[in-house]
Amino acid sequence: MKPGDLTTGTTKLHKAWKKLLLRWDSTKTDWRDAVSRDFEQKYLEPLGPQIDATLQRMRALNASLTAAQHDCEH
Q1: Residue 39 to residue 45: CA distance in whole angstroms
Q2: Distances (CA, A) of 65 to 47, 53, 57
Q3: How far apart are CA 7 and CA 14, in angstroms?
Q4: Whole-number mean pLDDT of the chain?
Q5: FRET pair for 8, CA 20 to 30 Å: which of 40, 51, 58, 66?
Q6: CA-CA distance, 47 to 40, in Å (whole number)?
Q7: Could you give the count of Cα atoms lying within 13 Å of 69 in the half-sphere of its Cβ?
Q8: Nearest to 22, CA basis, from 32, 11, 10, 14
Q9: Three-class SS of residue 31?
């Protein structure tokens, strides 16, 4: 990863989130009570929109940094 490149971090975050959701789906097959529903509502559901927004911002920032680097080189 070169300085100013956010692609690697963005990819890692996206993959980690998908992996967490897959594991949670697997966990829900065995853990189906009020505590699991509360955990999902309190912690996992709010993360989805936050992670999506973070990924969008990271992509936009990466595009800006790439454009700035290109402009500085030429």
Answers
A1: 9
A2: 26, 18, 12
A3: 11
A4: 92
A5: 40
A6: 10
A7: 10
A8: 14
A9: coil
Instruction: Report DSSP state, residue 40.
Output: I
Angle at 8 between CA 24 and CA 3, to 5 degrees: 145
Over the range 11-20, which residues count as b (16 or more CB within 10 Å of their CB) and which as e? eeeeeebeee
Place of tokens 């692609």: 7
Cα–Cα distance between 17 and 52 in angstroms, integer?
10
Residue 8 clears pLDDT 70, i.e. is over it:
yes
User: What amino acid is encoded at 43 in this protein?
Assistant: Y
Residue 4, pLDDT score: 62
> Which residue in 68, 7, 17, 26 sits closest to 46, CA to CA?
17
Mean of the pLDDT values across residues 31-56? 96
Q: Would you state the pLDDT for residue 6? A: 81
